[in-house]
Amino acid sequence: MPTLNLFTNVPVDAVVASDILKDATKVVAKIIGKPESYVMILLNGGVPIAFAGTEEPSAYGELISIGGLSPSVNGKLSSAIAEILETKLSLDSSRFYIKFYDVEVNQQPEFSSILFELFLDS
């Protein structure tokens, strides 16, 4: 399941959040080549963030996927997500950073086990 976690210091109202969630879901599914029903997007607005020494509008993202990522795909995803943030939040793409995690299929049971243990501990 591809999961995109987005954090921005820009306050995000419910309408804009809904638009970003819909647009990002479509983009991630299309570029990675997985059904939209497998994609999860989390959006956290109004998070204190300093980037390049200022608190001007900026964002950070993490995309985790079991396969489907590569340098070429990552570049397309980064550009497409930056464009969504620029359009919806007036956030300059030079103030957006995204980290990609490609989880191999054989790592999945271990990763699930760790998440399960974290869930039980909370």
TrEMBL record:
Where it sits in the cell: the answer is: Secreted
Q: What is its main location?
A: secreted
What molecular function does GO assign, one term? phenylpyruvate tautomerase activity
Question: Is the keyword Secreted in the record?
Answer: yes
Give the catalytic activity. 3-phenylpyruvate = enol-phenylpyruvate; L-dopachrome = 5,6-dihydroxyindole-2-carboxylate
One CC-aspect GO term: extracellular space
Signal peptide positions are none
- Say if the entry is tagged with keyword Lyase: no
Provide this UniProt record's keywords sorted from A to Z: Cytokine, Isomerase, Secreted
Q: What is its EC number?
A: 5.3.2.1, 5.3.3.12
Q: Show the InterPro entries listed in the entry.
A: Macrophage_inhib_fac, Tautomerase/MIF_sf
Into which EC class is this enzyme placed? isomerase
Family classification: Belongs to the MIF family.
PANTHER family, per the entry:
D-DOPACHROME DECARBOXYLASE (PTHR11954), MACROPHAGE MIGRATION INHIBITORY FACTOR (PTHR11954:SF6)
Protein name in UniProt: L-dopachrome isomerase
Species of origin reads Stephania yunnanensis
